[in-house]
């Protein structure tokens, strides 16, 4: 199952790309597991994804918790918490 990953703000800067297409291993079932797996793919990923408390996610443009299942997802975005004024 290939997933289009999107990264925003400092997450994108640390990873070094704004998007990539990935095929996670069969055992990866939720966003948290996906983050754990992605963190093993490069030093940039490891640094950007090390502190889950600083990460938010969206699956197919809908905000989700990190324990959300990824089955059937076409696009997953990872980004820092959004603040506004």
How would you describe what is shown here?
The protein is α+β, with helices and mostly antiparallel strands and 85 residues long. The protein contains three helices and five strands, in the order E-H-E-H-H-E-E-E. 18% of the residues are buried.
Shape: globular
User: What percentage of the residues does DSSP assign to strands (E)?
Assistant: 15-25%
Q: Order of strands in the sheet with the most strands?
A: 2-1-5-3-4
Low confidence ranges = none
Distance between the termini: 38 Å
Mean pLDDT: 95
Major sheet, described briefly?
A: 5 strands, mixed
Helical content, roughly? 10-25%
Task: Give me the Rg, rounded.
Answer: 12 Å
The H-and-E topology, N to C, reads as EHEHHEEE
Q: Number of DSSP helices?
A: 3
Number of DSSP-assigned strands: 5
Helix-strand category? alpha+beta
Nutshell version of this structure?
The chain has helices spanning 9-15, 31-38, 43-48, and strands at residues 3-7, 19-22, 56-59, 62-64, 75-79. With 85 residues, it is of the alpha+beta class.
Could you name the key traits of this structure?
85 residues; alpha+beta; 5-stranded mixed beta sheet; 3 helices; 5 strands
Topology record:
Elements lengths: L2 E5 L1 H7 L3 E4 L8 H8 L4 H6 L7 E4 L2 E3 L10 E5 L6
Parallel strand pairs: 1-5
Antiparallel strand pairs: 1-2, 3-4, 3-5
């Amino acid at each position: 199952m290939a997933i289009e990953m999107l990264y925003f703000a400092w997450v994108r800067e640390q990873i070094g790309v704004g998007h990539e297409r990935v095929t996670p291993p069969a055992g990866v079932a939720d966003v948290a597991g996906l983050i754990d797996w992605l963190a093993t793919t490069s030093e940039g990923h490891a640094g950007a994804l090390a502190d889950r408390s600083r990460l938010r996610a969206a699956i197919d443009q809908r905000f989700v918790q990190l324990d959300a299942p990824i089955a059937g997802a076409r696009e997953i975005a990872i980004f820092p918490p959004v603040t506004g004024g």
